[in-house]
Task: structure prediction
Amino acid sequence: MFDREKSAPVKAGGAARLWKKSFLTGSALFFLSWIWFFVRQYFKDGSWAFDPTLINKSLAVTSLLLISFSMLLTGLAMLRRRYMKYLPWRRFLGITGFVFGMAHALVGHAVFPLIGIEMEESGGLAILSDVLGYLSLAIFGLMAVASFAKVKGFIGGAMWRYFLRFSGYTALILVVVHSALLKWDSWLKYVNTFGSVLPSLSLPAVLVGIAALVFRLMGEKRKSRRRPAGVTST
Ligand code: HEM
Result:
């Protein structure tokens, strides 16, 4: 996700521009997600009431989408060279997604309990889901730290690439399972009945995450087909 492998180094001015664009993309996604959940609530309950838990859902979906887009770029670039020019975006989208993920955890588990708002989750699966959520957040946090050039120099290029590659996809899988543990029933109900008109936005967001994993695997397969026998990659 935050891996700058094979992409041209970003100049100081370019970095400021990518930070700005990534945070604008995150803000737009957050706003659109909130509208989606707000309209969906009307179709579900017939109510236009302001529900603060929709803010946390929107933070969660924005985080997952940004992180998934960041990783999707790697797979796309491996399959089609024309996407190579977007590789510098990965670090900026990934870190912005991590910031939204932190806000989601903070709002859901610190701010809401303080003001007496209860989340949708319940039971043992919710505890497992929370553990996976925290674990993925910790991994994304380590990746954000590792994305600084000084850290690359400290741990060495090969180790640095290996860490970013495997930790990113591991954390993405943990987030997908985190969301599935909480939303599986809702997704299944939607797919079986199409009753609520709009699905929870977490369903398309998780599908983007899965697409990022599948595209990367397809990219690796193509790379190994091109590589002469006996040559291995780091
Ligand atoms: C990068 C890290 C994380 C991502 C991308 C993420 C993503 C998601 C997604 C997509 C949902 C489903 C939203 C919906 O449609 O209702 C969700 C729900 C939830 N997550 Fe996370 N999550 C992360 C970390 C955490 C952490 C650390 C916690 C804290 C324990 C947490 C607690 C929750 C809770 C309580 C819900 C249920 C919200 C509700 O239904 O109202 N998440 N998360």
